[in-house]
Amino acid sequence: MTEQNKKEEQANSCPIYKKCSGCQLRNMTYEEQLRFKQIKVDRLMGKLCRPDRIIPAENPEGYRCKVQGAFDFKNGKCVSGVYQSSKGGVTAVERCPVNDERADSIIRAVKKTALSLKIPVWCSFNGRGFLRHVLVRIARNTGEIMAIIVGSSENFPSKSAFVKELMKKCPEITTLIFSVNRSEKMTVGDRCEVLFGKGYIEDIICGKRFRISPKSFAQINPAQAERLYELAVRSAKLTGKETVIDAYCGIGAMSLIAADKAKKVYGCEINKAAVNDAVINAKLNGAENIEFICSDSGKFLAEFNDAKLKADVVILDPARAGCDRKFLTELVRTSPERIVYVSCEPETQSRDVFFLIKSGYRLKKLMPVDMFPFTNHVECVALLSKLKSDKHIDVELKTDELDLTSAESKATYDEIKAYVKEHTGLTVSSLNIAQVKQKYGIIERENYNKAKTENSRQPKCTKEKEEAIVEALKYFMMIK
User: Fold this and answer.
1) Which of 20, 96, 170, 344 is catalytic?
2) HSE-up of 65 (CA within 13 Å, CB side)?
3) Measured between alpha carbons, how far is 369 from 248 in angstroms, rounded to an integer?
4) Strand-strand pairing, 201-205 and 208-212
5) What count of Cα atoms within 13 Å lies in the side-chain half-sphere of residue 124?
């Protein structure tokens, strides 16, 4: 099968991917996606440390074990699918290739059950109706499934009949929960009522048993999460003598894995529900050398430093926005020998890494992991070590020379090709790029611009491809 046929088959596997916009890279083969993400990481931090080869997903389809199905009443009928905040509405999705098929089946059953019982579905046009969305969480290694029904009010119409009918259609659900959310956000409300089961699910990750409650965070790709956590903890090079801080610890996954090889572990997390789960998880796994604290991570580090305590290793896995200045300042003050920074957003990670380098750390290793196939997101583990004052030479680091937004930055041909492919779907050649760069006064190597023989004619870049390449050159700030 040719590359073009592979791309067409892949794109056709989801006929609505352009409307949904969740899988930005579905028009690429999986090999092209990995290359695109590798280039992204290389460009952001390659001048500081040569990144390892990206770790691919064994199965790039059907990996999502946390799936939300939003409901809306449009054009006289109920639709379920993906809520798009930019459009303020729901794009109908019956089956998503990256979702665990069981989750999509449950969402369809919820819709069918609600309609059969005449339970009013939320209508975004007039702001009326009851059924807002459903969240399905699947524990891949235990098979337990949680479904959370989110309504607009505490008055659940035909609640008993709904539970009975849904459980008949979906006996695989091990716990069913009801929550109220009156806001526009696609979130679970503060109060959760257990309609069936124990109110939580448990999964096994890296040989550890974890409880996952309705409001706590858990990775959507458990198979890759195992590889990510093992990679992060292995990078910490623990010997059993270290004190470790796991900032942004969530339900305590990396804390528990690190506890096997550390003297003491402190886990910090601002989400109270996640901390409650983390405490229970420590008991489930018999880990007695862990202490979990519910607090802002920056505040916790400040108190830790004020108490003159010492940490040898700090592991951090912040949200997509990265770390704030307060946290980074306190982290430098903590002065651990090693920092393991896990991030789902290389742009903010690179910003924070530059701060740490200016504060006396060296980026030793960079390990990208493909947690979210078909999306443009890439997870990355960065290992930083503290420089010894008697073993290094001070140099002036100008972060504007390293930053992606620097006017001095130059994109490679592969980066330009990847950008054009992602944003337009067009495949452009090195010759096409060279022709456009020459037209805009960017000097190119002679062999790209000249024909191999006097009589041979070079194919000219089409107008459509030229416009796409120009946009890429503007994005990379190579032309204005």
Assistant:
1) 344
2) 22
3) 19
4) antiparallel
5) 20
